[in-house]
Write a structure and sequence with these properties.
Length: 142
Amino acid sequence: MTPQVCCDRYIELFENLTPPRLDELSRLVSDEVHFRDPFNDVRGRAAMRRVLEDMFERTQQPRFRVSQRSVEGDRAFLAWTFSARAPVLGNWSVDGVSLLQFDGAGRVASHLDYWDSGRLYARLPLLGCLIRRLRRRLSANS
């Protein structure tokens, strides 16, 4: 499978991800895939699956929407929006970017997510108040 084909299938899977579809990851990621986001840094297909299973346990209606993609050689960059509903947070969304690295077989060997987790923390009742106050003090507009 070429990196372009794998990337297209990977995006389709993530945009339509459900717990039963998690089995499809095994065809698209390498055995030792490296997955990292602001809360997780794991290696291996089973560990990545556990992260995604946890997402389904902790949130309702999680949804990824990829708005841009660029595949060059053995790398891809994806711009996306993730939305979900979660206890305490309610409905929320976050924009982010993923860097995918493909192995020699065209499977995802590395999936590194970059997004601002501070926006999520700012929605928490007590911590959010402190973060908003800190942002105002550090802002160039103050």
